[in-house]
């Protein structure tokens, strides 16, 4: 019975990873589609490929943060396998429901923060505030603000440098060069997306396994977790998320290939650098900041601030909304467990 429950929760975690790729596909391909460098079908295949290639980057710092840096893993494990399974299932369902709602509404919210919120909300009924790792949560909360600002700064800097480097060239030649370079920048961003987002679910799967059937083993991330999570997110990316593509690629600001290159490179470099520090940032927040930064180099009126404001509100409410949803699911799981017993 326990083994079957573990397999089910691991399957739900991989489904979340698939939905994460589906939900965040727009982040990886919005600029390259909006600048018409790649067709939508080629763009999602390109992004999915680099999502998977990121599995071989050799870094699992974000996975360890998600597994032990938000909730106190040892305290949760001490509550027994049933508590571990109930908490993780509720956390995943809270994040999945919020992701699907924001996908339906066309809002590019953060899967990273939805999962963090789900973990927080599902843990509180079991362990209370003592079960939360305050420093880890504070770090994630700080980078809700910092990651888009860093992405914006790099986006502005790269746009200014790129424009200066080609200011004597004809617009046709500039467009031709940056259409090719945007293939590289899109690959960088898709790689960073895999590096950051696939690792979140590795941490969750590790909590499930080392908190239940492998309680006698030390917490670590196995190779098969890495491969399966990257495969799931790559498949999700391949099936896309067109409602959010429209918001990210067209509604925020109008991008040319040179702007797409600057935004994708700025966002991708930010995410890769922060992943090395084990900080599970939002790819959505970061690329949005970079796109806004690139648009702002043409003047503040080039950015549709009403759309940006809608996106920011989605960022603000994601963690509490996912946490509240996870609390509801935890209550439902307890009712079902009592009825079953």
UniProtKB/TrEMBL annotation:
Subcellular localization(s) per the UniProt record: Membrane
Classification via InterPro entries: Phos_transporter
Membrane protein topology class: Multi-pass membrane protein
Superkingdom of source: Bacteria
Entry keyword set: Membrane, Transmembrane, Transmembrane helix, Transport
Pfam family, one: PHO4
TM regions (residue ranges): 44-62, 83-106, 112-133, 140-166, 223-245, 311-332
Protein's name according to its UniProt entry: Phosphate transporter family protein
Highest classification ranks of the organism: Bacteria, Pseudomonadati, Myxococcota, Myxococcia, Myxococcales
